[in-house]
Design brief:
The structure is a homotrimer of 137-residue chains. The first copy, chain A, has 137 residues and is α+β, with helices and mostly antiparallel strands. Chain A has three helices and eight strands; from the N terminus they run ββαββααββββ. In chain A, the strands form two sheets. A five-stranded antiparallel beta sheet of chain A has the order 1-8-3-5-6, covered by helices on one side. Chain A has a three-stranded antiparallel beta sheet with strand order 2-7-4, sandwiched between helices. In chain A, β5 and β6 form a beta hairpin. The mean pLDDT of chain A is 98.
């Protein structure tokens, strides 16, 4: 069985937004017990992020680390048409990844206790982001 | 339904090669409407890359950024049998990833307008690369 | 068809542990010929790693590289409740990824000759890790 739905997430600029509850709502509509839930962002400047859901400092520190790995406004970049965060956002998207697959059993995500699913916006400004959720089982 | 095919891509040394058209041709042969298209490279020194398909400077800047994250010929490396690019290529492969899953609907990839799928060669010299495409739906 | 099993891996602190044989044993029990084998760690401080299985120096050098990308005990981190390796482990988990999908044919993994699947422990101390294996085909 295959079920598919597109979620729309309006980001509030750079930062990560917990979408675990929205994902669980899709699962409830899908009615598939055992299988895989695949998420995919249709953009090259945001990511899907699986990380700790408890202490928000984890996601704050991830911003610190990623701002070193792919700094904004680096003079070495050639691609900067949309501003200092343009190329940095593309690089963060490659490092953190555009898709994520989570296993399911009993109609529930098999996430660990401390795992949350986040849309990670890498651009400075707010964007309307599409997340394709495909469930196979 | 499951469909599988192995694509062969001959890389021309370090750099990224757009394989979106080849992937679309596999989809046409598969005849599956809704589901997931999974790509996997059978190598540890190249990657699959999902990034902007318009401005080639994006992929040029990605080379710049990755050459800092995993520099060639670092004296700290112990694994250098095949040259200065050997260990750097393995590290880039881990950072960018060896597999990628793209959702499908109506027999088409649900890529965003600006997304392209690339084989990313991390070795300096040309290589013959195998990409396993598996379609489930 | 869908088959699912949870493997338990006891890590011996930071480092990578080859789990390819355990994964092959799951495949043998699943009895699915063609499809996808998906692995997922239910934790935010370890990863799944696909890399060279021959020279252990590759994985040693990966530790070197990742210790630069996400250093232990960085004074900029705010999340350090569980020690110097706490936040570094979360960041390594995001960079290397928590899930991995490998194609199958003839009931076998379509890994390349030099590819091995590893659980990569990012914490300093030993942990009991759960790896969910889901096979679709």
């Amino acid at each position: 069985m295959t079920y598919q739905e597109i979620l729309t997430v309006v980001s509030r600029g750079r930062g990560s937004h917990n979408i675990t509850a929205e994902l669980r709502a899709v699962l409830a509509r899908a009615g598939i017990a055992t299988g895989l839930a695949h998420l995919f962002v249709r953009h090259t400047s945001c990511s899907l992020l699986l990380t700790e859901n408890a202490d928000p400092d984890v996601r704050r520190d991830l911003e610190t680390i990623f701002s070193r790995l792919a700094p904004d406004g680096d003079p070495a970049y050639r691609h900067d048409l949309e501003g200092d965060d343009d190329m940095a956002a593309h690089a963060r998207s490659v490092l953190a990844g555009s898709d994520l697959t989570v296993p399911m059993a009993g109609g529930e995500l098999l996430l660990g206790t401390w795992q949350g699913v986040f849309l990670w916006e890498h651009r400075s400004r707010s964007h309307r982001r599409e997340v394709v959720v495909t469930i196979l089982g």
